């Protein structure tokens, strides 16, 4: 199921036209103006066939390294700070055995075991969350990004049961009181919908790299996985990397240099 | 026939008023949930479905079980069931209505419910689930109503009803299969990711549903003073016994596969449910063991013919069976699915008081609907002399 913004606008304009025709038939001439929406991409927009992320876990040594990225994401996306089991998180860190649950070895290098690792939505190539969503509120963009329409989500949380990576959060309560400082450039969410990392699609459209990538200052790499010349492909060739739960066949787009 | 609803004894009205009260409590609690969100429930980031979805799953089974009366009667011409089929169909209507309500109260954004139909998504099992449930509700309502009407005027039901009945048989299997497919196809949820889940669902439905029906009929026959028919009870309990044996067998298959393969992910949920974790026993473990004992107990009382046909023992056996299947599906299934989190940590869950009150309200809605429908059926049948 691929659905581009353009397709969406086409459908939208058709429905507007349909509505206009209906209203016009009812004698309301004012509504007859069915505008043909024009959509122009930002000339600066970064483009890829398959966005992917390579995290150099060797470089993340201090709490500050992690916090810089997490805070950058939280501020960029108005992520509320809700303590406890109903928390909302897009990118967070955890221990090795919680991140790579099926790649744990006994007597492993202490250094690797003691490191902490980022977790976020993998923007899977075969995303179960998209497969199960009954309203197409979760959908895949042509760039490989798994995106969400918060205004269509019915909050059934089927996608959360479907995602094997625990990448999704649900707004159990109204998130707005929990946002310290609202960033007017990004929408806040309402109660009762699911949300997750969006690979900063809004920044890519404006020609900027994801907030966490920018804040990581070279420790996280971002690029086009389908382009053999890209930086991420070079890194994958030169380094040993892991992905989370590859055996499930979702084809995660987040790689970890170990 | 609707006028029958209005003429009843004071006891009948008191019962309805009592249910009305419970519905009121549930509805008011639900208003709070609408305002404060699902934070009022025990669900969390790692346990995203709870008591509501579990009840939904169980009740789809109860709804589907009407087929255990319809199938012998219409496919094999077994006449003894004809008298009580209508009760099964009307119970199915109550069950489907409860299912729908449980889905609605579980939604974060119920006001957007119609998005499922406005943006039909054929790759989502939930879309099909919604469709088959609505279809099943309509089928049972039309079939039940029409056959009862024909009984009242003592005419043979028209031919088209028969075709609808045949459709409803297949439909019943499909609603519970689709419900199993909701969870059966999710990668990474080991407790559900098993091909026998749908079969398990059907087996447990086909014993629990008729057992519940028989129990309720035994109560109602005392109040309304009618006979269910010895033969019908005999045959139905045999069906219940076989289905329960199959249910237990399929569960044991799961246990074997998990533990003989020794794959940790497959053992974790069962381990959590029956033996707890390093941190101790979760509350559900006690329930699971009660369920296991009840399941075995019910079989002990149902398998030997002499015990099964003893009308003093039968209600106990049926009660134990209903409790056992409910614990398995109405508690264990969802908790076992979520307890090992995607991070291989243990995620605990317990329903909260608001969650239980809302659920109670929904159960009361079901009881209300079934009470009214059964009242109509009993009155019509009594008048027609077919009870
Ligand atoms: S990580 Fe989870 S939420 Fe993200 S695309 Fe994959 S399945 Fe969907
Ligand atoms: S919670 Fe929202 S995004 Fe997730 S499956 Fe349901 S409708 Fe889709």
From TrEMBL, chain A:
All residue ranges annotated as the 4Fe-4S ferredoxin-type domain in the record: 144-173
CDD domains assigned: PsrB
Pfam families xref list: Fer4_11
The keyword Transmembrane helix is annotated on this UniProt entry: no
Molecular function GO terms recorded: 4 iron, 4 sulfur cluster binding; metal ion binding
Lineage: superkingdom: Bacteria
Annotated signal sequence range: 1-24
Gene3D superfamilies for the chain: 3.30.70.20
Keyword terms of this UniProt record: 4Fe-4S, Iron, Iron-sulfur, Metal-binding, Signal
Ribonucleoprotein listed as a keyword: no
InterPro entries documented for this protein: 4Fe4S_Fe-S-bd, 4Fe4S_Fe_S_CS, DsrO-like, ET_IronSulfur_Cluster-Binding, TAT_signal
Name of the protein: Putative sulfite reductase-associated electron transfer protein DsrO
UniProtKB/TrEMBL annotation, chain B:
This protein's GO CC annotations: plasma membrane
Locations listed in the record: Cell membrane
Main location: membrane
Record carries keyword Cell membrane: yes
Keyword Transmembrane helix: yes
Transmembrane segments: 12-32, 52-75, 84-105, 125-143, 163-185, 191-218, 239-263, 283-304, 316-336, 356-374
Domain of life: Bacteria
UniProt keyword terms in alphabetical order: Cell membrane, Membrane, Transmembrane, Transmembrane helix
Pfam families on file: NrfD
Protein's membrane topology: Multi-pass membrane protein
Family: Belongs to the NrfD family.
PANTHER family (UniProt xref): POLYSULPHIDE REDUCTASE NRFD, PTHR43044
The protein, known as: Putative sulfite reductase-associated electron transfer protein DsrP
